[in-house]
Amino acid sequence: MKTQDIEFLNELQEELKTQPNDGNAAPVFWVIRQYEDQITDSDFGEKTLYAHSDGDCSEFKTLEDLRLFLDEELDSIEELDSIEHCETLDEAFDIILADYNDSGYFYRYEAISVGVIQPDTLFITKKEAQQHIENNRRHYNSTVHTYAMTAWRSRVVENLWDILRTADFNSLKEEQT
Q: Tens of pLDDT along 115-127?
């Protein structure tokens, strides 16, 4: 085994011994999670989402977002005139859905925020998961965070983690000389 491989294993071992487990049982591993809006029944919604979708989807967070969209996308300024005096996005959508949604492209949904584990993320150390977030923040929203999980009843992972935490990798160096 190469010297740099042994050094890597020693550093990994130290990290595994000293990292927090965020309240999880061993063996712990890390993934990336963020909160995302999920459409739900109106009785359970925490917030309302406003959107226009005709193949491309535009979501409106503010009344100004809607006004800019209507100004850029529509040939007629009639819709802009009708919502000019609206004070809220919800009020403007009442008008649009009632009077200007013949194409069926405008939608109002109730939604909840749910924690979603991001696909293709698995890290042995929390430090590496945090570094991944720092290096790839542009791919996530502002709620992104590390999330500890347990490889529950996975004998292979449990054995591997135990070996990584307890093996004397320096003896491998001595055997090679």
A: 999 999 999 999 9
Report the alpha-carbon distance of residue 173 to residue 177 in Å, rounded. Answer: 7
SS3 readout for 110-167: EEEEEEEECCCCCECCHHHHHHHHHHHHHHCCCCCEEEEEECCCCHHHHHHHHHHHHC
| Per-residue pLDDT, 177 | 59
Report, as an integer, the average pLDDT of 163-170: 93
Which amino acid does the sequence have at 167?
Answer: A
- As a whole number of angstroms, the distance between CA 11 and CA 73 comes to 56
User: How does DSSP classify residue 84?
Assistant: T
Q: Rounded CA gap, 148 and 90, in Å? A: 38
Ramachandran bin of 174, using left for φ above 0, alpha for ψ from -120 to 50, beta for the remaining angles: alpha
pLDDT reading at 76 higher than 60: no
117 beta partners: 33
- Give the residue from 149, 172, 171 showing the smallest Cα distance to 161: 149
